[in-house]
Amino acid sequence: MGSSRPAAIRELLRTRRVYRARLPQTLPPPRWGLGELTGRLVELSAGGASATLTVATGLVLEAQRAGEPVAWIAPGDDGTFYPPDLAESGVDLGALVVIRAPSCQPRAMLTAADRLLRSGAFGLVLLDLARAERIAVRWGGRAEQTQRPAGTRGPATSEATPRALSLPAQTRLAGLAQRHDAVLICLTTRPDPDSSGSLGSLVSLHATATRVEAASGRFCCEVRVVKDKRRGPGWIHRQEGYRGPPGLR
Q1: pTM of the predicted model, to two decimals?
Q2: What domains lie within the chain, and their CATH numbers?
């Protein structure tokens, strides 16, 4: 028995069938941008609209500079989407497809996102659900009203929190984004943006945006990832050097 072991070792060395443990490959540090988000269903939320719109505008600029067509699905009765602010930030409005839909009909917004992604023509699609009053409970079915206190009327307020997307809706949108190497960003407003809860279990990445004031009238936006199926949560990206529109200076 003892004499056979050296022979076996010599045979392994002769045939070069020696297996060495490989060091685990380290991924480069994450960076908030299209390269990290491609093929994913992403939720970007905040306590207010300004931070999410600033971060989303940065993604639009990145996509347009890379030659990727961009579409923005916005509520038709919402004043947060203001084209002059995007133009001042450098966005080419002539190359930006904007689809308006009533905020009380999110099913129409989901259908628009489905068709845009299914076409395979868009590298970035933004779905503004920040003031959506209700979310379709099943794809193509009836929409469930968000609960309101008795006696209240009128359109949804900025504090309205969208319900979770139905599983069929998540499956379709996430699958289309992955199939066509596109990015779908769902913009939401949440009372507690730092919560790990998201629109659904198939959301690949959920990040929160916070605006931090800086000197000389400028500000920066901090993107904090609270859910990431690829890398794990907890990483932070900071974007600096923004200057708000005249009403925010």
Answers
A1: 0.75
A2: 31-147+154-208 (3.40.50.300)
